[in-house]
Amino acid sequence: MMSAEPYDYVVVGGGLQGCLLMHALAHYRPDARVLLIERSSALCGNHTWSFHETDVPPEAWDWLRPLVDFRWPAYRVAFPGMARRVELGYATISSDGLRAATAALADGESLDRGSRGFRFDEACEIASPTQVVLSDQTVVESRVVVDCRGRAGLPARPAGAGFQTFFGCEYQLHEAWPAAEPTVMDVREDQADGFEFLYELPFGPHRVLLEYTRFSEAATCDEERAQSLISTRLAEAGVSSPQLVRQEQGCLPMPYAKPELQGNRAIAGGYAGGWYHAATGYSMPLAIRFAELVAGSQPHNLAAAVAAAASQDATRRGFSRFLNRLLFCLVKPQDRWKIFRRFYSVLREDRIARFYSHRFTVADAARIVIGKPPTGLAPLRFAQSFVPLAKPVLP
Fold first, then answer.
1. Nearest to 229 by CA among 243, 214, 212
2. What mean pLDDT is reported for the chain?
């Protein structure tokens, strides 16, 4: 069964990438007919997405600004023997805020000019760059289909990757939190199993998110370790009887082998399309860039525009994977934190900003890797990481 008339855009997946794209399309193409299809019953999941304000192109602020929950003028990092205030604006978007703002865009599933609709609890198949097949076999036609399903359909444990796992607790407090600015990395010296740190976001004087993050070979988060470090930080801050508001957790692959992107039948954003920062796990910078690219291109030129932009960014993507290879294959787990201490010790704010926004230069890349290396190197393991990861299975 065919839908009556084609949409201009069908967006498959209602996570960060799909929702940002809906806002960009509403801003740049208000007359477009847009449908978002989401397999679950709600948008956005349960996440907190943070980013540097310099990650955002100036033209994107017009549609992104209403989505931002909190902004700070700077943030801090703390390592054994080194602390720094990084004077770059920092901001956060929450799932709750993005969900509500995106839902407000809806005006039904009609095909009138400027209509924006949503279908929830809908498993679908992308059949072609212009067709999506719904669970009841209805074929939805569109001038453009954009796959924003993230890692859906990709291996849960990709070969040639480390993992960034996180477990966070947001609290309502009786006492005032002692810091007004975020601490992006609070690193303790006891680093037994990969690089681990606490991430601290104060949402006002009586609300804070404390998140334990670990970069290691394991794809599972040590919740007992996370709770221990979070409790220690609460005690240090003089907090008693905090009220737990919510928890969030997740796992992000940090690939060092070139991923085998799936043969998507549609233009792909987010993780599946390579629109993420492999070396940091920050999704926002490239998700915004992809949304700007899709909404700002003519539909008939979109595939070529996306391919050209990905090609222009290929060297940066490769360098980000190379940094992951250094982290996971060259340095022993207990010494990985020293790489990040060196990063924040030697880089100026402008270089840090370009790195996180995935717009770093050759000179920036050289400054990151050239210099006195950290201790705890494992050169043999690093060399072995270049050996093909999977041998062919003989019949």
1. 212
2. 91
